[in-house]
Amino acid sequence: MIDPKQLRQSAAEIRENLARRGFDFDTDAYAALEEQRKALQVETESLRNERNSSAKQIGKAKAQGEDVVPLLEAVKDLGDRLDASESRLEAVQAELRKIELDLPNLMHDDVPDGKSEEDNRELRRWGELPEFNFEPVDHVDLGNNLGLLDFDAARRISGSRFTVMHGPLAQLQRALIQFMLDVHTNEHGYQEVYVPYLVQEQALFGTSQLPKFEEDLFKTDGDTPFYLIPTAEVPLTNLAREQIFEADSLPRRYVAHTPCFRSEAGSYGKDTRGMIRQHQFEKVELVHMVAPADADDALELLTGHAEQILQRLGLAYRVVALCAGDLGFGSNRTYDLEVWLPGQKNYREISSCSSYTDFQSRRMQARWRNPETGRPELLYTLNGSGVAAGRALVAVMENYQDKDGNVRIPEVLVPYMNGTEVIGKAR
Question: What CATH number has the domain spanning 26-102?
Answer without folding.
Answer: 1.10.287.40
